[in-house]
Specification:
Blueprint lengths: L4 E3 L11 E5 L5 E8 L14 H25 L3 E6 L4 E7 H8 L4 E5 L2 E5 L5 E3 H4 L2 E5 L8 E2 L2 E4 L9 H7 L12 E6 L6 H10 L7 E5 L11 H17 L4 E6 L4 H12 L8 E4 L1 E4 L5 H16 L3 E5 L17 E2 L7 E11 L2 E7 L1 E2 L2 E2 L3 E2 L27 E2 L2 E4 L6 E5 L2 E6 L1 H19 L7 H4 L6 E2 L27 E2 L1 H7 L8
Parallel strand pairs: 12-14, 12-15, 13-14, 15-17, 17-19, 19-25
Antiparallel strand pairs: 1-8, 2-6, 3-5, 3-9, 4-5, 6-7, 10-16, 11-27, 16-18, 19-20, 21-22, 23-24, 26-27, 28-29
Length: 512
Amino acid sequence: MPTSRTTIQGSERVVPDAAPLGPADPDKTAVVSLYLKRASAEPGSLPVRGQEALRTEREQGISAAADRISAFAAEHHLKVVERDLARRLIRLSGKISDLETAFGTRLDLYQHDDGPFRGRSGPLTAPDDIVEALEAVLGLDQRPIATPKSIRLPATAAAEAHLPNDVARLYGFPTSGAGEGECIAIIELGGGVSDADTAAAFKAMALTPPRVIAVPVGDGANQPGKDPDADGEAALDVQVAGAAAPKARLAVYFASNTDQGFVDAITQAVHDAANKPSVMSISWGSAEDGWTGQAITAMTSAFQDAAEAGVSVFAASGDGLATDSASDGKAHVDFPASSPWVVGCGGTRLQTNGATLASETVWNSNGGGTGGGISALFPVPPYQAHVHLPASANKGAKSGRGVPDVSSDADPDTGYRVIVDGQAQVIGGTSAAAPLWAGLFALVNEAAGKSVGQPHASLYSHASAFNDVTAGNNKVGAVGYSAGPGWDACTGLGTPRGQGVIASFSDKSPTA
């Protein structure tokens, strides 16, 4: 009797917007990542627990489901190449033809501007007892999922640009702390980090270069020189995070730019027992409607795991203003910055008076600017329950999580002087905001003597720890949002007063 099969929730794909090249080679081997379901929880409701406690809980809860999937794989001539119950991950390897049969799909090749990729359309299916345990099946479709949130200028084009450590100084980051003993995880979906670039950049800042550890994820690797745009992203992330917390270790996780690579990188970083990051910086993303439901679910679960493990996660809110560079005339927010488990980081344009921060406005210039708005996927989280959130700029849309939570300098005209592939560059974008805030939280953890974990509740209770940005907007035409007193959908709570942010995690009493 045939086994009853069910659609895997959220697995539906549309036909790729790319030129078809024909069917995938049925005899070629591919590797897919299967993520198992976990219990849900409210953002901000989880206690910080150690990695070992989390690992034990996961192993006890999902072992039987993993056994069923292993048996299912064997029936379809697929090999289990990795079984990591702490990550709720089963990786399967097999021929394309066997994977198509196992998950009820057809895989074809397509040509995209970024190169060829394997893709599919329609839903995935599996036997009922497998589907009830599955959260996502990732890796069958390899279309690019994200873009780096950075904009590069020639070094001579931005007279008001700053060295990264000067930006940290303008925001009052302490010089007494340096993040010693902390590890910052940095997620990269391409490119590479050059030791020569890092050495030159930190020499320019009169700082000792941090220890940078390249961690391959799947078929990802540290490959400087192969993709200059991605190299610029990686260099910016390392040089900004390292400038903010010069004695922190930087573990850079290199993965492929697919939903599989992105989720695998997050889970690997969260459960990295060797490097043990306490903070994570993500400068890649795309509009919420560009993801499948299963990929959103799997990454959201990974961020819940991060909260349980005491890892604070920061992500760029995007550089395409309120539309997130979409062409449909509607407002969109960027994921993963829109996840309620992530601190979304928006962007400003800063003005200085010598070595002092004089004023800031919303970054909106030369066709680019900070992303922000109201999520179409996630409801209002508890920590925003008392925030005045605007209605979505999309008529008739329901209320949702507000993005971003915080912000910092991102306008390329007042951006960051960095070294990329041996060349001096100026880079801006909310890609700079995420590692700056991640570096600040390495200092927070150092001062607190512990990993503070998901920080939203404390951030939203300490308004005095921020410079409130009240001028500007992130509109594209009439679509978007304006800054104003308190939280807004351009710069969130505002930019950091470094010492104040650090103090807020030792003083838990709310301030006005």
